[in-house]
């Protein structure tokens, strides 16, 4: 997968630069996300890999499916990707674009998994603490996992903070066994 990310990076940077210059970060993020979903669909993959379709027809197919989410710049971008046979990179381009967007906006998406439902004030306190730690605005999404026994697990990208009872018990077991 590292190779796909390497191939996608220049496209994501170019798309981000264009969207930033035209104040269209949100529109591009939504359009790239929807396009990425289209090219990840099994039925769409069968159609998009058909040798009888031209590059323009493939790009237009995605544009037609996505509808109103497409700006003119994004339509041109999809045409360039299609003519370079890079439509399969759209999921990686979308993810890299969203990362660049979050860096620009000084925000970070955090997923909090807790053993029990967190009250709104608890979630806000946790978000504030994480905001200070990361020095960014924190967008929190939460879920419940009873197997944690207690505590929380915080995930953002490849960073994980395991403050769960289950995680602490696992660390203790590893320490005892080593």
TrEMBL record:
GO terms for cellular component: plasma membrane; proton-transporting ATP synthase complex. Gene3D superfamilies: N-terminal domain of the delta subunit of the F1F0-ATP synthase. It is found in: Cell membrane; Membrane. Keywords: ATP synthesis, Cell membrane, CF(1), Hydrogen ion transport, Ion transport, Membrane, Transport. NCBIfam families: ATP_synt_delta, PRK05758.2-2. The gene is atpH. It comes from Litoribrevibacter albus. F(1)F(0) ATP synthase produces ATP from ADP in the presence of a proton or sodium gradient. F-type ATPases consist of two structural domains, F(1) containing the extramembraneous catalytic core and F(0) containing the membrane proton channel, linked together by a central stalk and a peripheral stalk. During catalysis, ATP synthesis in the catalytic domain of F(1) is coupled via a rotary mechanism of the central stalk subunits to proton translocation. This protein is part of the stalk that links CF(0) to CF(1). It either transmits conformational changes from CF(0) to CF(1) or is implicated in proton conduction. Pfam families: OSCP. Its main location: membrane. InterPro entries: ATP_synth_OSCP/delta_N_sf, ATPase_OSCP/d_CS, ATPase_OSCP/dsu. This is ATP synthase subunit delta. The lineage of its organism: Bacteria, Pseudomonadati, Pseudomonadota, Gammaproteobacteria, Oceanospirillales. It comes from the Bacteria. Belongs to the ATPase delta chain family. It is a peripheral membrane protein. One of its GO terms (molecular function) is proton-transporting ATP synthase activity, rotational mechanism. The keyword Secreted does not apply.
